Amino acid sequence: MAGMLGGMHNSLPDFEMPHEEQVHLAAETFRLLADPTRIKVLWALLQGESSVACLADLAGAAPTAVSQHLAKLRLAGLVKGRREGTFVYYSAADEHVRGLLRQALFHADHVDRGQPDANSYSH
Amino acid sequence: MAGMLGGMHNSLPDFEMPHEEQVHLAAETFRLLADPTRIKVLWALLQGESSVACLADLAGAAPTAVSQHLAKLRLAGLVKGRREGTFVYYSAADEHVRGLLRQALFHADHVDRGQPDANSYSH
DNA sequence: ATCGTATATGCGCACTCATGCAGATACGCA
DNA sequence: TGCGTATCTGCATGAGTGCGCATATACGAT
Fold it and tell me: Which of A61, A86, B28, B114 falls 20 to 30 Å from A113 in CA-CA distance?
């Protein structure tokens, strides 16, 4: 499936690009994960369910901000809420998020971005 | 640093949160992936190296826009460029990106966001 | 000069956060 | 039982910020 490299230039290879809708959904998922507070919240929720106040304490953010973040994550279907009295206990709704977070954090721990060498290819 | 402080309902056992630096790097990675054009470009680069014009054609975007996206990806260390005459052939520099993209696209293909049931838990 | 690529600037849009307020529920006390 | 208060959560608004795109310009190579 992967085209042979090297000589081909403008000719469109034979591999298939993802569908537009798929790409859009993936971008939206990444956009939701591109926030330190939401990453911490989701990481905490992957360990078990918790409430807004507890998550705010864990993430080091204001409860209202965490509530807004949870609302977005809920609309995206990444977390779900269970009401018990005044508290709302949230939990992760998708197992794929665990893999994405683990890979991203692992990548962040092993990446070496020491030099923003913009012109490493020029001479 | 977050930490003790009273008033925390211990619905979650003690577990370790990722380090602050790790979280920021992961968020930055996700932010770079949170764009349809960059997703298409990276997906194409995972199949082999290609030039700006070819990538622009594949992604359906202007060459200048693709060049700017590639500059950001290059500064982040996600792609690398090899100059050959007038052309610059880019290629993916990190194998972790492949896993992230695959999981995100797979997730996008399997997620069912048909129910933005925001108030599934409310009265 | 032409083509491929990189960079600078302005515009429009979306996002985050902080503030304030409202609804809902639990608790205390007469 | 009835009432008032405190707490938890959700929603709306404004300020500040960053991003992507389009345009124009510059550099390098043939």
Answer: A61
In this prediction, residue A114 carries a pLDDT of 38
Residues near A108 by beta carbon (within 8 Å), at least 6 away in sequence: B21, B22, B23, B24, B25, B26, B29
3-state secondary structure of B70: helix
A80 touches strand D (CB under 7 A): no
Banded model confidence at residue A14, pLDDT cuts 50, 70, 90: low
* The Cα angle at residue B85 between residues A115 and B45, in degrees rounded to 5: 55
Interchain proximity B2–A58, CB inside 8 Å: yes
Compute the mean pLDDT over every residue in chain B, rounded to the nearest whole number.
81
Alpha carbon of A52: minimum distance to chain B alpha carbons (Å): 11
The Cα–Cα gap between B75 and B89 comes to: 16
CATH number, domain with residue B61? 1.10.10.10
**Which residues form the domain of B83?**
34-109
Nucleotide nearest to A74 (CA to C1'): D10
Straight-line distance from CA B8 to C1' C11, in Å? 46
pLDDT at A112: 55
B71 nearest nt, CA–C1': C6
Mean local confidence (pLDDT), B59-76: 94
Q: Is strand D in 7 Å reach of the CB of B10?
A: no
